[in-house]
Amino acid sequence: MPPITVRIEWCRQRSRQAPSELEADGWQAEADGLRDAVMRRDHSEDYRLCSPEIRERYLLGLQDGIAMLQATRVQQANHAATPRIPQAVLRMELGTRSGGE
Q: Which of 36, 35, 14, 34 is nearest to 25 (CA)?
């Protein structure tokens, strides 16, 4: 499961377990921000009338989500650019270096 999906689910669980409505709303706003990052949308205007704490949590989720997605893309690009050496070739080279011939 992608890290951002894990984080969204974690926020939702925290929201359900929150001791207060304000805290639950904060966790839900953060999950909404993460989800919006995945969907490439920005609903920060929808949060302008909310309390500053809730709006900040939404923005935190949105910004963290964007950063997590960028990091994933960089990792995937680096992984794709790394040349792959078949395991049989590696074993053969290692055997040659260690005097296995």
A: 14
The domain total for the chain is 1
Could you write out the DSSP letters of every residue in 6-63? Answer: HHHHHHHHHHHH-SSHHHHHHHHHHHHHHHHHHHT---GGGGTTS-HHHHHHHHHHHH
pLDDT tens digits along 75-95: 888 777 766 656 655 566 666
41 CB neighbour count, 10 Å cutoff: 10
Which amino acid would we find at residue 28?
Q
Provide the phi-psi class of 40: left if phi over 0, else alpha when psi is between -120 and 50, else beta. Answer: left
- Cβ(4)–Cβ(39) below 8 Å: no
Residue corresponding to tokens 């999950």: 31
The whole domain housing 29 covers: 3-97
Assess contact for 44 and 29: CB atoms under 8 A. Answer: no
